[in-house]
Each structure stands twice: as C-alpha cells, then as structure tokens.
Write a structure and sequence with these properties.
The chain is of the alpha/beta class. It has one domain: L-asparaginase, N-terminal domain (Rossmann fold, 3-Layer(aba) Sandwich), CATH 3.40.50. About 25% of the residues lie in helices and about 30% in strands. Helix 2 crosses helix 3. The longest helix has 14 residues. About 35% of the residues are buried. GO terms for molecular function: asparaginase activity. InterPro entries: Asp/glu_Ase-like_sf, Asparaginase/glutaminase-like, L-asparaginase_N, L-asparaginase_N_sf. This is Asparaginase.
C-alpha cells in the first residue's frame, strides 16, 4: 500500500460546513473556516495545505466560481485535493472539475449540519474525504455519509438529505 507523502491540498469554498448561527436573528452566516479546529479534533497527522477560495452558499455559486475552483485545482502542485463545498450543488461543481482537471484525485465533501451545531456530520465527512483522497485513483469524487461516489453517478436526494448513486435510482418512466 502506498502512503501519502506529499501534502494534501484542502480548498475551502463555504457551504453549510462552515456556517455560523446568529442566536439573535436565527440566521446562518459565514465568518471563518473551521478547518484547523476539525483537523485538530480528528487528531489528523496528515500534511495538508489549506486555502480558502470563497465562503459562499453553494446555491449562490456561479460558473465563474466553479471555473475559479477548477483553475486552483489545476494550478496547485498537490495531486490529492479535498474541497469543502455546499451540498446543494456539489455534484454540479464535481462535473466542472471532471471536465477541466486531469491527473489529480479530487474529493468534494460537505455537511448537512453546520460544524458549530455540535452534532454535525462534517467531521466524519472530512475524515472520510481525507482517507478516500489517499486511496482512490485520479478522478473526481464526492464523499458523504461514509461513502464515495464517482462525479458522474451521484445526486443529493432532497427528500432524504442523503447522497446516492444515480444509476441505482429507478426512473418513474418505467
């Protein structure tokens, strides 16, 4: 088994992962990333290089934002990349990355519940993404709920809040 010796690049883009809760008005907002805290809580000993690209909700993400993420992935020296991303449009960004970046292993992950809520799935998803990025071949993947999905075979089921494979989903046209 080959172990990761080069640092893993972690790109922060926002999403529920890094949202804060305003107790006065009940709104969610962005302040700073919680990545260092999460890596410490998870007792990670991996060499990582962290860069915040943006702090936005993925529903506000535009084609220009996605192209910027792809450019950063293409230009960074690391071959293994984890991207924290909002779950609503994660599959869309994965598609752009797959079409624009080659020769690197890229894993997108996020959270359904903000880290600051204490019962978030974010720490588990981050740990899974860091493990998957070290073991999967070059390509683009989504890591959520302890599973990884190929970029072209994943969707967020809005009824259940769980990521699932497209090909295992039956169509109503049958």
């Amino acid at each position: 088994m080959k172990y990761c010796t080069m640092a893993i690049r972690i790109f922060i883009t926002g999403g529920t992962f890094d949202k804060e809760y305003n107790e006065l008005n009940g709104e969610l907002y962005f302040k700073d990333t919680h990545m260092q805290e999460l890596l410490s809580l998870g007792r990670s000993r991996l060499p990582v290089n962290i860069k915040t690209l943006m702090m936005i909700d993925s529903l506000e993400m535009t084609a220009d934002h996605r192209n910027y993420i792809a450019d950063e992935c293409e230009q960074c020296e690391e071959e293994k990349i984890v991207i924290t991303h909002g779950t609503d449009t994660m599959a869309e960004t994965a598609r752009v990355l797959a079409n624009q970046v080659s020769g690197k292993t890229i894993v997108l992950t996020g959270a359904m519940i903000p880290i600051k809520f204490g019962s978030s799935d974010g720490l588990f998803n981050l740990g899974s993404a860091l493990a998957f990025v070290q073991s999967l071949p070059p390509g683009v993947y989504v890591a959520m709920n302890g599973r990884y999905f190929n970029w072209d075979n994943v969707r967020k089921n809005r009824q259940t809040g769980i990521f699932e494979e497209l090909k295992s989903v039956s169509t109503s046209a049958e």
